Amino acid sequence: xxxxxxxxxxxxxxxxxxxxxxxxxxxxxxxxxxxxxxxxxxxxxxxxxxxxxxxxxxxxxxxxxxxxxxxxxxxxxxxxxxxxxxxxxxxxxxxxxxxxxxxxxxxxxxxxxxxxxxxxxxxxxxxxxxxxxxxxxxxxxxxxxxxxxxxx
Length: 152
Known about the structure:
The chain is 47% helix and 14% strand. The chain is of the alpha+beta class. The chain has a domain at 48-135. The protein has a two-stranded antiparallel ribbon with strand order 1-2. The model has no long low-confidence stretch (mean pLDDT 81).
């Protein structure tokens, strides 16, 4: 049997015990509410509705303009629908300018005038609603709760 030499080294370190740390915590909850928020939200929805209605009207008149310009078949279902919906909207503006005939279609300036007028009218209605119903006040109410805990 072979002799094997092993050396073991032990080191002892003495430290003084440290006291347990003091733990202090503080928690703060702040809840902010605005009492005018519901009214502002209602006004915003009404304003968006106005822009939506006028946007659809303007889009239909724009489609009418393109259909007339390209000489679309008035007996086609979609074309007939668009003309039927937009005729009462464009009629007040007919006759302001002449409508020159092109080789394939008709340049309808009444539709362009109607687009400009309804765009302006939609903006005016939205601004009047903004002035009458818009809420510019802000009244933020904050509810603060503080919690403290101490561990010694």
